[in-house]
Amino acid sequence: MEAKELALMAIDNSGRQIEKAYEGLPEADYDKKICDSAMTPREMLEHFSECYHNAVPYADGIAPDWGSYAIDDKSTANLWRVYAETRKAAIDKVATLDGPKLAEIGMGFMALHDTYHVGQICQLRVHLDPSWNAYAIYE
Asked: Hey, which of 22, 71, 96, 138 has its CA 20 to 30 A from 31?
């Protein structure tokens, strides 16, 4: 298996984990957090989009301006729409990369970073509903 194939497979897997972690999350729970310093699931969707948005120019050598990205319409439907658009653009960009940029962006900005936040979402889900199956994120 080539590095690019591995990175794209990991990105695909982390995307499924995100979707499964959010699947069935009640609307009211999008604004809850596990502790004061954590992000809410709504904030995480915007954060994912910021990372994907920044991955594209970063791959071309443009340093990200972290924290300047904001989605005006923070409705759940719009956050998911922007998430899907920015994620697709980042995946398309990763598919053109090789070497260290492939590893840094494909694995760092996406697959590993995604799964870090998946764990946070799962922890919140189990906290709010102890019967929620945290293993549901896996195929």
From this structure: 138
